[in-house]
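## retry 2 of 3
previous attempt timed out at serialization; input unchanged, resubmitting
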Amino acid sequence: MTIDAEKAAARKYDYIVVGGGTAGCPLAATLSTNYSVLLLERGGSPYGVPEIENADAFGKPLNETDNYTSIAQTFISEEGVSNVRARVLGGGTAINAGFYSRASSEYVSNVGWDEALVEESYEWVEKQNAFKPRHLWPWSSAIRNGLLEAGVLPYNGYTLDHVEGTKISASTFDNNDKRHTAADLLKTANPDNIVVLLNATVSRILFHSQSEEMKVANPRASGVEFMDRHGRSYQAFLNETSSSSEVILSAGALGSPQLLLLSGIGPSEHLREFNIPLVLHSPLVGQRIQDNPRASVSWQSHEFSTLQVVGILKGSQNYIEYASFFVNGSASLHAPDKSNVVYTEIITEKLAFPLSRGELRLRSRDPRDNPSVRYNYYSHPLDLQRCVHAVRVIAKLLNTPSLRRFNGDPSHDFNFIGPALPKNISDDASVAQFCRVTLNTIWHYHGGCEVGSVVNERYKVKSVDNLRIVDASTFRDSPGTNPQATTMMLGRYIGVKILQGWAE
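## retry succeeded, writing output
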């Protein structure tokens, strides 16, 4: 149930989950099977919001942002790349392109997850939130055929699995073009055991005070401090009579490392800069963060398509994706005349496993402010080489009969917005410069609380009791072509593991 802040703070809980996003919603729903759960989300509800629910509105929340209340919050990396983070129940699943595709079997094996439970957890998510497309949009059909003509083989048809070649996958948009988010997974929660509090921004984790003789013991989380939309401060506490009570951070790849730092867990010298009392010197908090860079071409069109097709290049170092972003106008998606609606079409390559890594640091002690992030895009030379390879595949794709027919006049090139592809696509230096000039995000940033460095294999924060992290901040690499499937799966997976006795 959803109640106000004062009532929420008056109770105690077995689990306090910070962040009602892609991982936090399935995690909280699962834990509520056996435990009392407080789920704190800094944003509002996704329901009844056309900019979230309607497929043809994709991109609107990304462009309509402010510092404290918008559905998405813009942040800019130290390199100057503009990005967004979600601020709404459902997290990134409420503002993304909807593509649903699993991680590769090698990814699952390398992480060390229980493969049978991974399968069960994916299926649990998919029963509610993954939809096989009834048909391909004309633009998606052209992309599929063009990828095959460009040699992105084999054709794998429809599959949720991560396999090299060209494939169709599921979407979190259903066949009525309505979005389903991770918030929908809360419908499976035990209503008697869960409290969902919206517009609640957590400012810090609370810890049991330690007497001098107990200073040798690990710090132990006891609850959280949060503020409501009016800036009023509250505290919520764990149930001390429960042997398995925990605070679990699911605040995302920016929010979770930021909250650790604000709570006194991180590099001691950095915390001193902000006069934050040290709870634990943990030098790897906020380190080794990544954002998968993309290089792309774009133009304006009256056609729209959800993301239904992807090209997974040989060796799986790059993916070819596309998107239609709403610009202006109004018409039904299926209206015969869409001449008054304008979309920006993008064809992009995603660098799957960049070797460049960066760091996250605080800018202020205000939890509503974005932290400072530096991703060090293309600082490793191999990243740029892989971008060059993938851009050449985009050049082949744009020259295929299927895409030239879609352009209207096969004898003319696309009328690009921004940089066009280099005229000499075989010149490494020119293509590398195109990668640099069109550098952008694909919104799949991750890391900062990696498994093995900040958290252990059970996602517990090292050297801290009663504190766990479950979200994309724990990923070393981004899973699959698009990470939402695996991030939702992770929330369910860890929830089941805790129910099975992982608390001890």
